[in-house]
Structures are given as structure tokens and as C-alpha cells.
Design goal:
- The chain is mainly beta.
- Helix content is 0%, strand content 41%.
- The chain has no helices and 13 strands.
- The strands form four sheets. The protein has a four-stranded antiparallel beta sheet, with no helix packed on it. Strands 7-8-9-10 form a four-stranded antiparallel beta sheet, with no helix packed on it.
- Strand 8 and strand 9 form a beta hairpin.
- The radius of gyration is 17 Å and the shape is globular.
Length: 180
């Protein structure tokens, strides 16, 4: 995965500032490191949905980095923690989609689940998030995910509530009592 700096008045073209890689001496197959990425406010989430965790092939993993402006020539991201799937399963794909807003990370997988974590220091703490009722054919969590303020958007191209529709975007309001 490459980190680019593009908003430099003295350098109008993009330049590679840092390369992030997952290195493992026991490398057997691709873990799909960087299949999904999201960053905000100095926090970077990198999904690796094919990572093998607890002997479950392709169960997935999410790597969390924090920006350190004191490193390198212009600053660098530093790995602070890894978030494993809560229940690792074969082909679970945890980290297939990721989203970051402030200190909140949201994660989608192949199991029709959306997860939320709050990053405090070096710790990723899970936050309970209600799940919509979906069918076994659903792609919830695998088709795209985003977060802003108290709202999470998750696409599901296979959820068809009416014959004339071709997919659904679920909007989660994490704080329905307090409007923004």
C-alpha cells in the first residue's frame, strides 16, 4: 500500500511518501492487505480480508495505523494495533470494507455484519451496533461502507426490498436522540 502526498504547493504532482506492507516470513498466500483503506484525523485502517487468523483461512484482519508527524521527512503512519474478527470463520473476509471517522473504525465482512470500534491510545474497543435483518444472499458489509459523525452508511447490492429496486443502502444513526 502506498501513502501519497498530493496537496503540496511546491510539488503539484503526487509523490509516494510511505509504503506500508505486511511482511511475514511464513508467507503462503496473499492476505489482500490494502483491499480496503480509510483514513481520517491521523488514523488509518487497512483491511486484509484474506488474512488467516486462528487457523481460519481468509477470516480477515484490520490493521490500525496512527500518523506520527515526527517520523521521516514529512511524517509517517505507525502500526498501533490489529483488530481480529470477533468470531473468525473460514472465508469470513473481516476487513473487506473499512471506514474511519475521528477515532471510530467501522468494518464490514462476508458474513453480513457491520462492526464498530473506538480507538483509544493503542486499544480498539468494540461498540455494539444493531444489525438490520438481511437474507442469506445479502452483501451487507461487503459492498461498501462509510462513516461520518453519528451516521454509518453500508451498501448491499443483493438486498432488494421491492422488485423494481436493485440494491439498498442502510443508514445507521448511532445516536437517534441527538440531532446534528
Amino acid at each position: 500500500m502506498f501513502i501519497y502526498f498530493t496537496n503540496q504547493p511546491s510539488a503539484p504532482t503526487a509523490a509516494i511518501a510511505q509504503t506500508l506492507q505486511y511482511l511475514d516470513d511464513t508467507f503462503v498466500e496473499s492476505i489482500c492487505f490494502g483491499d480496503s483503506v480509510s483514513s481520517d484525523n491521523g488514523l488509518l485502517a487497512v483491511g486484509a480480508p484474506s488474512f488467516a487468523y486462528l487457523n481460519q483461512t481468509h477470516s480477515g484482519m484490520v490493521f490500525i495505523y496512527r500518523w506520527d508527524p515526527t517520523l521521516g521527512a514529512m511524517g509517517e503512519y505507525v502500526l498501533i494495533t490489529q483488530i481480529p474478527p470477533p468470531v473468525p470463520v473460514l472465508n469470513g473476509g473481516f476487513g473487506l470494507t473499512v471506514g474511519v471517522w475521528n477515532d471510530i473504525v467501522i468494518i464490514g465482512d462476508n458474513q453480513r455484519t457491520i462492526y464498530e470500534y473506538q480507538i483509544v491510545g493503542l486499544v480498539a474497543s468494540p461498540v455494539l451496533l444493531d444489525q438490520p435483518p438481511v437474507l442469506i444472499t445479502s452483501h451487507l458489509g461487503a459492498d461498501g461502507i462509510s462513516i461520518w459523525d453519528q451516521y454509518i452508511a453500508a451498501g448491499d447490492s443483493a438486498f432488494v426490498p421491492t422488485p423494481s429496486s436493485s440494491g439498498t443502502t442502510f443508514i445507521y444513526d448511532k445516536d437517534p436522540i441527538t440531532p446534528i
